[in-house]
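Reading a protein record of the kind used here takes only a little practice. To see the layout at work, look at the sequence and tokens printed below.
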Amino acid sequence: MKLTQQTGVQVLLFIGAALATLGVLYGLVLGLGLLPPKQVTMAAGEAGSAYYRIASLYQDALAKDGIELKIIETAGSMDNQRLMDDATSDVDIALIQGGVTASNPDLNALAAVFPEPLLVFASRTSGVDGNPHSWTGKRVALGAQGSGTQAVTQRLAEVTRAPALQERPGNLAQLLGGAAAAEALLQGELDLAFFVAPLDAPYLQALYASPDLVILPLAHARALGSQVAEAHHVPLFDGAIRYEPAYPPETLELVTLVAKLVARDDLHPAIVNRLVHAMTRVHGQREVLVMEPGFPNTELLDMPADVYSAKLLREGFNPLEQFLPYWVVAQINRFALLLLPMVFLLLPMFKILPALLDWRMQSRIYRYYDRLHEMDSTLSGPQPPTLSPEEAASMERELDEIEDGLRTLSVPLKYRKSAYTATEHVGLVRKRVHECR
């Protein structure tokens, strides 16, 4: 069957309209920044550190959605915090230890992601106890320069005033941390070393296995922990790290901080969505060091939480993600967050609008009553006036104009009754005019 010329034109118009619609939608997607960036930059830690390992797990998770996570090596939390505070830095997200606070107001935490206990490993031959004042003359690693461990040991030095924790010339304390400190401890080049890290940090495994080292419980740990920002006291149960032989051999009360994933507040919502997915997969299992609530969470944060991330962690992911691209669903959720407060603000307006409309429609009718009332007041009373022919004719003309205005008034049907009632009142005033001739 051949297409007529008219049908061909209709087909062409339909194709043109469809292409134009697609063009407009594509322009909106690009113009409004709905598509997420293809690369995100993250400040982590040194290669081989726990932070770097976790960043690598995020990297693998994001890669499944075609997002490249560029990992920046740093000394640790304090370096990460400085990079996030720098508004000119190209770092988008960073792992930062609890208690290490950023000063940039344009930052939010996506979630608290894992516990980081303060561990003090000591050589069994060092002859020290848990009181830092007994460590004088000992070789102590206080954490690498720029690390979260260094931030904690600096605070402990202030609180205890123990000489062994002071960073000063001639002191045996040194700024060494992570894998380097663990290796030095194993080689007998240190007597003690501080670590703030998750229990499954790669460099800690050899320390657990060494018969020459022991986790040293800090004396008066609760008193010390209460003076370290955002510290918690969490029991590490005997046998939690290794069942046979049991390690630790007895339950230890550990001063514990909580690591958080920090992001700039303009991070694309689709990237936030993917990061929450990644955090849930990486940190959703039960930790050896048990804290409530489970990770990831927004309850254990020491800074404001990202609104969208908190919503996802609280309510779960949108079922539409099974059918639509994740970045589309992220935008739907984003606009839902914006629209919800607007709805609450507009609800009173929805109640007021009908009243305003009613007032507006009635006012178009009632505006005639000023003159009607004036004429009626003039003509009524115990002794009605006698009108001259000219006065009566003038009033008749005015009443005709009012009546014509009411009859031709454009108002919704429900208000016609008021208009008809007003015309009856015009008739009553006209009757008075006739009586006063």
Observations:
- Residues 24-33 have pLDDT under 50 and may be disordered.
